Amino acid sequence: MTTLFTAPTRVGAYARLAKLDIWDYYLAVPLAWSLCGPARDDPAALATLGLFLIGAVGVVAGAVAFDDVAGFRDGRDWANCAPRDSASAAAPPRRRLHRKPLLTGELTEREAVLFGWGATLFGLLVWTWTVAFAEHHPLWSVLLLAGCFFGAVQYSRGIKISYRGLQEVVLAGFGAGLVLAAVGLCTGELTGFAVVQAALFGFGPLLVGVYANTRDARGDASVGRPTAAVLLTGRGNRLFIAALTAAEVGLVVAASLLGAAPWWFALAMLPATGLRAAQLRHGVGYGDLAGARLLGLHAHRVTVSLLILVNLFAPLLGGH
């Protein structure tokens, strides 16, 4: 495949392979910190969270590198980067190729695979150290962390979970698992409100991914990658996205009404709810999938920021 342009540095190419500019999963760590209550000021807990974050960067970098390798091998990434009116176009726009250093020829397949294994091994070693170092290591937390590692590594390699119709489950479950595993290692405890917040965190990457998958449905279908956007009709997929959005908002409201969260929780989350409504309008209403994906990133970041504020101020306002 012809090299379209040369990167200024190979470091930049590896950084783009690792998708270091997309840091939304790593927000699980500050959210977990805010859920630690009195342990927030414990140096051991802070060190545990620091190690956890470093390990997460390695695991995620390895997972996305393997995903790029899989997309390069089966042609999915080339098809998805091509202009929307011609999947067989010979030269996709450079802006779409910028984050795919394998397609641009900046990195070879072998280099990407070695990077993926190196990052994965690094993440595994750091997470193992994190569990050994943590003051608390309940079995459920260790199992959650092991599940996150397995799901990330096997997402596009090995059993290829994302090629077996479970992509959406992994997108949400990985994020929720990170939050709960980190809280468990720092406190050894699990509350209903923490579970609610972990689920809301998981909705973040999920409600970014479903819009991206809708945009990439043609390329995914061509290689047999069965995302919801591939398996459902256009109308069915729109209903699926609307249902996910309603489920996230419904979880916030139900948590307030049923006592799992402070009574004012739903009011505090209104800015995030507004962004979700705008995302749904852009993506499902107007068909602006790129705009909806971007709004999804903003909505996730606002959601996490609001959750952290809720956790910090709830004791002062008579909450959990």
From TrEMBL:
Transmembrane keyword on record: yes
Annotated transmembrane regions: 44-66, 112-132, 138-156, 168-185, 191-212, 239-265, 299-318
Keywords assigned by UniProt, alphabetized: Membrane, Menaquinone biosynthesis, Transferase, Transmembrane, Transmembrane helix
Locations listed in the record: Membrane
Claim: Transferase is one of the keywords in the record: yes
Pfam families registered for this protein in UniProt: UbiA (PF01040)
Highest taxon of the lineage: Bacteria
Pathway: Quinol/quinone metabolism; menaquinone biosynthesis
PANTHER family: 1,4-DIHYDROXY-2-NAPHTHOATE OCTAPRENYLTRANSFERASE, UBIA PRENYLTRANSFERASE DOMAIN-CONTAINING PROTEIN 1
Protein name: UbiA family prenyltransferase
Source species of the chain: Actinokineospora guangxiensis
